[in-house]
Amino acid sequence: MNSMVLKSFLGLRKSSPETSHFAVHQKHAAISFPQKLKVIAGKTSPKLQGRNLRVAIVGGGPAGGSAAETLAKGGIETFLIERKMDNCKLCGGAIPLCMVGEFDLPLDIIDRRVTKMKMISPSNVAVDIGRTLKSHEYIGMVRREVLDAYLRDRAKENGATIINGLFLKMDMPKDKNSPYVLHYSGYDGKTGGVGEKRTLEVDAVIGADGANSRVAKAIDAGDYEYAIAFQERIKIPDDKMVYYENLAEMYVGDDVSPDFYGWVFPKCDHVAVGTGTVTHKADKEIPAGNKEKSRR
């Protein structure tokens, strides 16, 4: 991909030659944002009393990081709570080209720009589906710990407060003028041990804490569909890694998943191999007669 092509797409920026591929924290200086807005509540609001709106976001993945950045850029007092700042979340990590532009992602955080995708059927017939890509198009392969950290750091640069903490529970407002009270354990970068119990009062809460969302439980959001997935990162010999240099694979069929698919996605120095299902957990229980067989 040449520089002329890169310049024609919003948000696609070449890697800085003096910057390491893994030095995500050094990319922010190249980003320019509109001037921050000042959002002040009206004088007639008894709840806010002329101060900025205060919002807490629980969960520091792409949804949480993006929400925090957007709110902070708008002048809202923003807090993002995330327990695992280096979380290697189970995720295939394939992103479409449009996301690179819409999220203004630097090319440095993309491990590989795949242009070949192979779909393997239940009968082991392989079909190449990447041929529809144009010369400048690709499928980005990212590691979630890199992508998530970049988005959180960018939110912080725009004024969001990033809290390394574990969200525990939330007290709902007693009346329309009362705040939400969030209870969490603060770790301040500690890797182990018991966190310090803290509280945070805000005017609104965004739950971006995944399938087992404690925010969803706190507001009694009810049941919802979710997928169960498994993935391993496998480092293979360099001569075999060449095969996946520009190729991603997807497998369909009951031998891989009853209703989902399996994947082999290349990353910086390994392949991410995983599968999943949206079938209810109870339906996946192993029959008593098959338990011994399943252990082998």
UniProtKB/TrEMBL annotation:
Domain of life assignment = Eukaryota
Q: Sum up the protein's function in the record's words.
A: Catalyzes the reduction of geranylgeranyl diphosphate to phytyl diphosphate, providing phytol for both tocopherol and chlorophyll synthesis.
- What is the name of the protein in this document? Geranylgeranyl diphosphate reductase, chloroplastic
Q: Name one Pfam family in it.
A: FAD_binding_3
**Recorded metabolic or biological pathway in which this protein acts:** Porphyrin-containing compound metabolism; chlorophyll biosynthesis; Cofactor biosynthesis; tocopherol biosynthesis
Q: Which GO terms describe its cellular component?
A: chloroplast thylakoid membrane
Every copy of the FAD-binding domain together lies at 54-87
Q: Which organism is it from?
A: Arachis hypogaea (Peanut)
**Catalytic activity annotated for this protein?**
phytyl diphosphate + 3 NADP(+) = geranylgeranyl diphosphate + 3 NADPH + 3 H(+)
Looking up InterPro entries in the UniProt record yields: FAD-bd, FAD/NAD-bd_sf, Geranylgeranyl_reductase
List the EC numbers from the record.
1.3.1.83
What does the entry give for GO biological process? chlorophyll biosynthetic process; photosynthesis
Report the coiled-coil segments: none
Q: Which UniProt keywords apply?
A: Chlorophyll biosynthesis, NADP, Oxidoreductase, Photosynthesis
Any one GO MF annotation of this record: FAD binding
Protein family membership: Belongs to the geranylgeranyl reductase family. ChlP subfamily.
